[in-house]
Design brief:
- The protein has one helix spanning about 1-20, and strands at about 45-50, 55-60, 65-70, 75-80, 85-90, 90-95, 100-105, 110-115, 120-125.
- It is built from one helix and nine strands, in the order αβββββββββ.
- The relative contact order is 0.23.
- The chain has one domain: Jelly Rolls (Sandwich), CATH 2.60.120.
- The strands form two sheets. Strands 1-2-9-4-7 form a five-stranded antiparallel beta sheet, with helices on one face. Strands 3-8-5-6 form a four-stranded antiparallel beta sheet, with no helix packed on it.
- It is mainly beta.
- About 15% of the residues lie in helices and about 45% in strands.
Length: about 140
């Protein structure tokens, strides 16, 4: 868990460095393991970084919740911070757990489901930001 926390903070630090390259100020965005955005219905999510070259979000799913089927709208990487999920990519189920890093190609059909009895939270990294993508 400690290595995972270190990796998550490193990612946030890199994102901060890249977005603050022309500024002398460095800002800590937040602790990804505190205040995960759980909600009672649907899925909880919060934007961490929203720049032209990068969209980084944290998603939180309670047992039975899911991210519905959709096509990846950018190049996507998912880091599982806590818990276990089933990620379905182009019809293939992949069991992912804490510490796993999953790569998803642009336009891949995908969904994410928490079939476990525990909460799960993960980070979604999209490069470039989907607002910059075209089919």
């Amino acid at each position: 868990m400690r290595n995972l926390i270190t990796a998550a903070f490193l990612i946030v630090s890199i994102c901060i460095s890249s977005t603050s390259a022309h500024s002398e100020e460095v800002e800590i965005i937040g602790n990804l393991l505190e205040g995960a955005p759980y909600v009672d219905s649907g899925r909880g999510a919060r934007a961490l970084v929203d720049e032209n070259h990068l969209l980084m979000m944290q998603v939180a799913l309670k047992p039975g919740q899911s991210v519905p089927q959709h096509e990846a709208n950018s190049n996507v990487h998912i880091i599982i911070l806590d818990g276990e999920v089933v990620i379905t990519l182009a019809g293939q189920d992949i069991a992912a757990r804490e510490g796993d890093l999953i790569s998803v190609a642009f336009m891949t059909p995908m969904s994410i489901t928490n079939n476990s009895q525990a909460n799960v939270t993960f980070v979604i990294i999209k490069t470039p930001n989907p607002t910059q993508m075209s089919e």
